Records
---
Amino acid sequence: MSDIDVGLMRGTLDLLILKALSWGPRHGYGVADWIEVATSATLLVGEGTLYPALHRLERQGWVEADWGLSENNRHAKFYRLSRTGRAQLHTGASTWHQFVEAASRALRTTTAPQQT
Amino acid sequence: MTDRASRRLVFRLGEGAKHVERDVDQELAFHVEMRTRKLIAAGLDPDAARERAIEQFGDLRAVRAECVDIDYGKERAVRRTNYLSDLRQDVLYALRAMRQNAGFTAVVLLTLALGIGANTSTFTLIDALLLRTLPVPNPERLVTVGNPARTGGLSEGSPRNDIVSYPVFADVRDQTHTLSGMYASGRMDRLDVLVDKGQAEAEHPHGRFVSATFFSVLGVPAVAGRTFTPDEDRIPAGAPVAVISYGYWQSRFAGVRSAVGRTISVNGVPLTIVGVAPAAFAGDIVGQRMDLWVPIMEQPALMPNSPSLTDRSISWLLIMGRRAPGVSLAQARTEIRAIENRSILDHASAGERVSVQSGLRQSPAQVESGARGFSYYRHLFAAPLYILMAAVGVVLLIVCANLANLMLARAAARGREIGVRMALGAGRLRLVQQLLTESVLLALVGGALGALLAVWGSSALIALTGGVALDARMDGRVLAFTALLALATAIIFGLVPALRATRVELATVLRAQGRGVSSAERGTGKLGLGKVLVIAQVALSVLLLVGTGMLVRSMQRLQGSDIGVARNQLLLVSVDAERAGYKDARLASIMRDLTARATRIPGVESVTLSENGIFSGTESGTNMQVEGFTASTDADTSIAYDDVGPAYFHTIGAHLLQGRDFEARDNESGQKVAVLNETAAKFFFPHGGALGAHVTSDSATSEIVGIVSDVEEQSLRADPMRRVYFSTFQMRNMPGRFSLEVRSAGDPGSLTEIVRRSLASADPSLALRVQSLPDLIQESIAQDRLLARVVSVFGMLALALAALGLYGVMTYATTRRTSEFGLRMALGAEPGDVTRLVLGEAMLLVAGGVIIGMPAALAAVRLLRSQLYDVALLDAPSIVAALVVLGSSAALAGYLPARRAARVGPLVALRES
């Protein structure tokens, strides 16, 4: 992937994180795991990039974090969706859909545009 | 989960910044560990799995740095928000608490307002008189030449440099290179001013002779009209103009524009008002009201009989200059001293030269910064004001101790609330901050009230100074002082109780039924903080009360001291016959006429006259050769003198030790005679034999015919100096301005009016001023009275506060021990036993305070030494009085709660617990 895609990628990653948390609190590894599975490992190049995104979302107040115990009894930082985060997921997802649909429609076009 | 987690968050935020990095590390490590596990589960061996996990993660270091960065940003934002919301919450909480306890709040605010108001009032005076610079551009470049306290100085005789003659001033003006501009400023005698045509009675505004450069050197423009022009500095009697002050313009001319251009009559000379000085500018003399300035060139016109512009023996001017750019004060000083010395020495007669030279070497001219202007009162009131400042500082400390006690009681009452909040996880720092917010809020409101009080207080203080004219406005410095004082006060009275209140043992508090018990109440050992504070208050009160006692006694001594004259029976009439044109034989005859007229008034016992008068503020000095006495230094020949009329010593009530009083025969044709005072007689004739010896002064030789006891002529405090008296009628130049001393049978004040009328009937053009000696003496000790009265007021305030503090602590202590007393009484103790028990404890506290306070007081009164008159530093009556007053107030403050404790029946007491 080239540099021009960073904005799109970041927005997409944020949306995926919010989506991952929409079923309840998860720790960072859990989020990474879900995204990997859900996207068939196409999106996350380095798993680490997930974490700055998570912390940024936390600072923005879209997710909240607490420390808790993991399934194997380890200290882990759990993230959950805040009210504004949930709202953001809704509007973000629909915007994304419109965008992607418009973009893919355009990309699938086979006939050349008519000259005016 | 959510509840637990959010509570934890509160804790974590308090942990500081370190946890940010730790948390990120922990989170990332957890991820890598989980991934490794999964890979192992998928069949990789542990080392390979870990390597793979890290590889999959990506740039661990960069991710970590980015996360830490984001979290720090978040942390800062959270902190800021938390702080602001905490502060808002604290303020609201404090306001609610203040409203809920309106009585408590009122008491606290009133006490604070009194304490801070007293300090601000005193500081306002210190600021106005001692600290503030003149309201002119670049005051720091001004320099004064001469003694800045001698604003009313006038000396005839040997040339001087504390005040200078006009020719000396002119030499400095013409020769200096270190000053870019300078002016001279000199006293005016009483002015007789007629503003309106046909005005019958002259008025007497305050004025000063100044060089025409006065306003330009200071950099003060006129608000209406103009200031002086250089021409008005050239021709004697050629500048018939005046500039009036803004205050005089407003009060006498109603501030109308047409005042400029008006001509008024000053001492019979028409002067045109050419301008008005700005409102902020009250002149170069701090503490004295100024109505008008007249060019010094008009002096010969206004005072025709005093050759003050030409005579080198008349010293009367102070000099103010502005340093030229790049010139230091030291450079200016060196140059000006050299010019003055040359100017004085060049004109000294051959006989004087050596003594003048040694005089100049011993006391060279004072050249100092002139930023704060000249002031007679600054010198006089500096020590009293600083002492007063110390006294009100002590009062404020007592206020702090009192309030600390109140806050302590308050905090104790809230002990359970505080305990519960701490159990719920509120940090101690947070609670201290909250309690302090309340103190600061109280102190700021109290300080604002105090500042308002000080507006009144400082003018009251100024009124007590008796005649000092000060602009007591609150400038930035005064307000900053007040604000700092309020904050310091809040921290002193708020911090310790807050720390104490939050030092709570949770278990104890939560176990206690209904009422909290903090360590503050239980105190450290037997002595609670509250009691320590009461002891401190008592100790500070002792300090103030002993000081008060000594100042009051010094005051009484001053008022009743034997000054060698009949101080309660004398009336002084100052007469200016010079202006009315009396000279020589006519002068002698009007002197005799006035004396005779006054003698005929019923109630007058006898009348005499003298040149200087008593407590008139004027003194004369001369050099005198004494037959049979060899002067070893020049100073030995100098002596104070006065020339007086017949029966002088009898009239003023001085005791003649040897020989005779002046008599009618000591007139123009009689043999010249002199009387020495005791100090002079002992100095010149240590072995006796003064009577019949001759003295020579001013080329006239007189025979000594009497020796009289020392008389304090001008000040109660001055050490007696050598003094010689001559007969007025035998003087070569009889004084045109003199004083009549009228001895009354009763209160001299009651004769004032009749004496004035009777004397005025001799010649209405004579300028007369009649004052009783008691009034004059009172004026001369204005600063003593100020100090004694004000310190008394504050001493009483301190006493009241300390008694209140004791009352509060004892009441609180007895209430808490109700059950103990009940038990004691149930076991057979009488009510009297309980009263004695409580009262005994109260007196123990007082005794503690006295033991600490007394040595402190004895050390502190050393500071008063300069202010005390005839009172020993270890003054038993003052100490006893302080102890009696303190003891009885304390007994009362302790007795009320003691009686209440004794009245509680055993059953009531036991039921309550």
Note: The domain at 3-104 of chain A is CATH 1.10.10.10 (Arc Repressor Mutant, subunit A).
---
Amino acid sequence: MKNDLKISHIQLRALIISAVIGVGIISLPNDLANILEKDGWILIVLSALLIFPIIFMINHIFKINPGKDYFQIGEETLGKVIFTICKLLFLAYLIVYCSYEVAILSQLIKAFLLHITPVEIIIFLFVLTSVYISSMEIDIIARAGYFIYPIILIFAGIFFFISLPTADFSNVLPAFQSNFKNIPRGIVSTFFSFTGFEVLLFALPYVEDKKKALKSSMIALGIITFIYLLMFFTTLTQFYLKQLQGQNFSLVMIAKTVDLPGYFLQNLDGVVMAIWILVVFATFAPAFFGAGKILSNTFRTKSHKYFLLGLVPVIYYLALVPKDYIELQRDMLKILNILSFLSIVVIPFLIFIVGIIKRRIKA
Amino acid sequence: MIKTVSKDIDENLKYIKEVLKGSSDLVIREFEIGDVFRIKMATIYIDGLSSKEFVSQFAIGSLFKEEELKSFTLEGYKTSILDAIKKDGLSAADISEKEDFEEIITDILSGETILFINHSTKAIKIATKEFPARGIDEPKTESLVRGPREGFVESLRFNTALVRRRIRDKGLNIEMYQIGKRSKTDIALLFIEDIVDPKFLIEVRKRLDAIDIDAIIDSSTLEYLIEDNYLSPFPQIENTERPDSVSASLYEGRVSLIVDGSPFVLVLPATIGTLLNSSEDYYSRWIEASAKRILRLISVVLILFPSALYVAITVYHPSILPTKLSYYLAASRINVPFPALVEAIMMESTMELLRESGTRLSGPIGTTIGIVGGLIIGQAAVEAGIVSPLMIIIVAISSIATFAVPSYELSTALRLFKFILIVCSGVLGLFGLMLGVILTGTHILSLNSFGIPFSSPYSGLGIEEGDLKDTFVKAPLKRLWLRPGFTFPKNKKRMKEGKKHEK
């Protein structure tokens, strides 16, 4: 059988969830607490509501252009020159995104797992390992997403339950005491926690059941929001606000402090880190794949394999640019936020609007 | 060089003798029949492949006895002698006419008897195939507590009969192929026409037709020729010795290939889900079977991870363990002169060595190897302080776990990856282990078995159809009223939706 690419809508759902939940989840509760204190959950809900129309838009683009991939649609609606600029922006975003992910990963692994191994080796090996799966087609990546998806769900569940005995629910209250002027600033930074759904642009043309695709991506968004909320409240019930604000990696800290009854397992931070490597991998691989696909589309080659090998040193050097965690979070994230906003909100929006206008003119 | 049977019998015989001149087991019996006109005839067969008794009694004997042939006169030439012989000269059950010498020689070599008649441009093939074969026996590799005790044997016809006896289905197709340019091995393709996905069948036929090899000796040869990724250590085609398992998989919309000369029948497509199923699951109660299936999945984890985790934890992350256990671990390793990586690889290799030597030896000596290996070497190694006792326990558990995986090929592949993971975690601890998992996982995910994802159903295909009910666990039979979805069966329903009989 000629292996024509096919993704079921269930796989699409899993792919989105595993592609969105990534490095961000470990520091998300802390970020939220810093911006909006105990009302951080408002930001999660608001961001999800903002993402909602974008996902709808992307689905709509593919619905009115059946059988075409993102590049064909973009070229036809925006014209070759403009879309090439768009592609370059998208490429830049994906590369920076990959470097950011792997930079954070290396920082955390150095802090929690391998104290003396140089970050260079960690970064290089991780990127090199990902070349294998990213050089395959989207259906294989979707299968990987389906494998990681239950791991994320199970671990979110386990996390919640092991922290139940020490949870102090009075920490959640009082609500609505924070400074709501911070909301716009907060949304800009929580929006990044939801990036990753741009994998839709590569996956949607191959989804078998187009009608269910929209529903599935919405369910995925719902599950992601739920997991983020669960993680936020779990950490909030574990720490006082000031404690939470001072802890960059609150989820790992919970794992470190939790003691299971019977003392069979202590110090779960290592285990959590190990699982988290898989979770980061599942966000990294689709983005890396996307970067390779953009390059192979620009240079009109059949396979994107060799571009990936070419991207390895690029990502490696970019990931080493920020000197420490603070620089990483402050400067790189700022660039990344702008790029992500341009390439996954503005460009699809342009295609969407221009597509509608062109259609009107024709009719 | 003649292509078809000539009128002159001597020429035909000369040709046969010329072609098969190296075959000392060729038997040619020439004789003449008829009182009035003597007609020269000859039977040809291979000694040992054909039933001598059958040839003498029902072919030659009946020709001699037939009165009409004896009194064959000139009038007889109105109907050809060939027809006369076919009509009442032969009492054998299965005969047919042959012209082409290529076919005739293949027939002779596969055990049929060929009857040449003078003045006739056609020869008669008499089905006399009978060769020494092993009787039907209990399958050696897949024994069950409850379930049929029959196993496949080496001869193809017995095997198709074993399947046909279980399925009196008019939809059951048995397509014959002769593959192997020289060996001309018979291969049967079995499927149920109104269940199997036609696209899948086309692909199987295409791959069979594309085979270009001189000889196929065993079904494994065929397996390696038609599988998707021949570089992978994972088996992408299932093999079984059990006719019941083949019959059941035909009803799942799968296809099976029987190769003459091999008691292992191929079943395809194979996925992780099917490779971890045993036919015992279907003969025991659902809750027990479900527990066993989950246990098997755990055993996969136990094959892959314990040694690698041991290495990663002792070398890089002793803090993961509870304090007491971590002290105990350090204390047990205090006399061990090797790094954990060397220790683990040493012990795992010893285990592989024991297994390899054990499988080559039969019965009592094999047991000795087990005792010497397991008890003496293990005990002595700990006392000598070369390895820690925990390592012995881990190696023992993970090698016991390999026997819980029903597919031998799958467990072999997993054992190979175990070594890779040990090395990965020896180099970079848990991070290395995870990189190893990613690489292994990617490889498994990238595999296809005839276009069907090898990792199904755990990678998404067939989830909606409820394949997890018959792979991850085994639901009660009444709940399995749909065929599994991963084969895209044409006919999805197995039975009516189940209800309890309670009032």
Note: The interface with chain B takes residues 1-3, 8, 10-11, 14, 109, 113-114, 117, 121-122, 125-126, 129-130, 132-133, 136, 140, 142-144, 146-147, 263-268, 270-271, 273-274, 277-278, 281 of chain A (CB under 8 Å).
